[in-house]
Specification:
Blueprint lengths: L1 H20 L8 E2 L2 E2 H9 L1 H9 L1 H5 L3 H4 L17 H5 L3 H9 L5 H7 L8 H4 L6 H5 L28 H5 L15 H6 L2 H8 L9 H5 L23 H13 L12 H8 L6 H15 L5 H34 L24 H22 L3 H32 L1
């Protein structure tokens, strides 16, 4: 009996502690039924208070539940705790676990792994949330990099301070990051038949949204079969595998002898490529399951396989263009830029030092992306005219420039 009482008391103590931590108002910090946080911020940041109180969390929690209780005045703002996924996991453990299994959690790691980022001013590509970091902040980061509000992760989709679930389920929540130059998924989807039906019937559920396909059942482990770089290993098609090796050398993942470099670990860590058959097949099976909610399995498989074929065809043109530029380096017509370990180095992006390499970068990050992403987002115009056609145009310019450079080099 004594043990049962002791056990019961310990459980009640735990429940009481949780209730105190997540109580909407702390009795020692109330003024007229409102917490001290709310009372103060109604004057300082009324918009934030209005948003917070409009959401579900505002009905059951206080600001201090996420931001801590150390900040008590305008003079100690630095003591405010900046929430992290661990903060959210206190209540949403399963969702945070799923998030950490997907690509969004690795977005910050992927950005930091790009050699190009080291050349950028802080405001453009670093941590000031104006360029790359403004979207890649959805990824987890070290505590030392949590320097300002909005540098968290979950609030990239469930924006502050209402943290609306309905907002995060709306496809328009995705478009700030998934649009534009290198990954215009929003534009592709919006102007596809799927997106057109959604705009006509936004509430019927007849057309799939980003979340239906990439977050079925609300699961947060967002991942795609091909990865951001549309690269996978191994490849059964011999010619395609040779082209893949050429591409991997051009991004510095393989050295000239075809052996793995230190960048392979970065690619693995960021999951921007599929480096084993099992991981590709798992993600592909997940997408087929999503497609078969509306289509037959054979129809889904046929369409996804057609997307694979687009990548194969683009990779042939891409690899040939890489070999042309590599030949210019091999023959001393192009000289490896200072500080570059690999040349050509596609992960330097627009920091390329020659016109032919700028064209190669555009094939890599803009045209090739649009070709394969357009195919998988069921947008024929993006696949063909913004993708495939541009790949061919750029490849022709590379060949022409290479011939001119060789002729000029002979005259020197």
């Amino acid at each position: 009996m004594a043990r049962q009482i002791a056990s019961w008391l310990s459980v009640m103590a735990a429940v009481t502690l949780v209730a105190l931590i997540f109580s909407p108002v702390n009795a020692a910090q109330t003024q007229g039924g409102k917490s001290a946080c709310i009372t103060c911020h109604e004057k300082v940041t009324p918009g934030i208070v209005k948003q917070f109180l409009s959401g579900k969390m505002g009905k059951t929690m206080d600001c201090s539940s996420c931001h801590g209780k150390e900040h008590m005045s305008a003079n100690d703002v630095a003591k405010v705790k900046l929430p992290t996924p661990d903060t959210c996991a206190t209540c949403h453990a399963e969702r945070v676990k799923e998030y950490r299994e997907g690509k969004h959690a690795l977005a910050w790691t992927a950005m930091k792994a790009m050699p190009m980022i080291t050349h950028q001013p802080m405001a453009v590509g670093g941590g000031d949330l104006k360029g790359c970091s403004a979207c890649h902040k959805v990824g987890e980061k070290a505590a030392s990099e949590l320097k300002r509000y909005g540098s968290g992760a979950c609030d990239s989709c469930h924006t502050r301070h209402s943290f609306s679930r309905a907002e995060a389920k709306d496809p328009r929540a995705c478009r700030t990051c998934h649009m534009g130059f290198d990954h215009p998924q929003w534009e592709m989807w919006q102007t596809s038949k799927h997106g057109s039906i959604w705009e006509i019937e936004p509430t019927t559920g007849r057309a799939p949204t980003c979340q239906n396909c990439h977050m079925p059942d609300g699961k947060h482990d967002v991942i795609t079969s091909w990865g951001f770089l549309a690269l996978r290993l191994p490849e059964d098609d011999k010619q395609w595998m040779e082209n893949r090796v050429t591409i991997l050398k051009a991004i510095g993942v393989l050295d000239e002898a075809g052996k793995p470099t230190e960048r392979l670990d970065a690619i693995k860590a960021a999951k921007v490529a599929r480096l084993d058959k099992a991981s590709f097949d798992k993600a592909r099976a997940k997408m087929i399951d999503a497609c078969t909610q509306c289509h037959s399995r054979s129809y889904a498989e046929t369409n996804l396989n057609a997307g694979d074929e687009v990548i194969r065809e683009v990779d042939q043109v891409f690899a040939d263009s890489i070999r042309t530029v590599k030949g210019l380096y091999d023959d001393g017509i192009l000289v490896k830029p200072k500080g570059w370990k690999y040349a050509p180095d596609l992960l330097q992006f627009y920091e390329a030092q020659s016109a032919v390499e700028q064209e190669l970068y555009l094939i890599f990050l803009e045209y090739r992306q649009r070709a394969f992403q357009g195919a998988f987002h069921m947008n024929p115009d993006y696949m063909h005219w913004y993708g495939w056609a541009k790949v061919k145009e750029a490849a022709a310019r590379i060949q022409e420039d290479a011939r001119r450079m060789r002729q000029e080099h002979k005259k020197m």
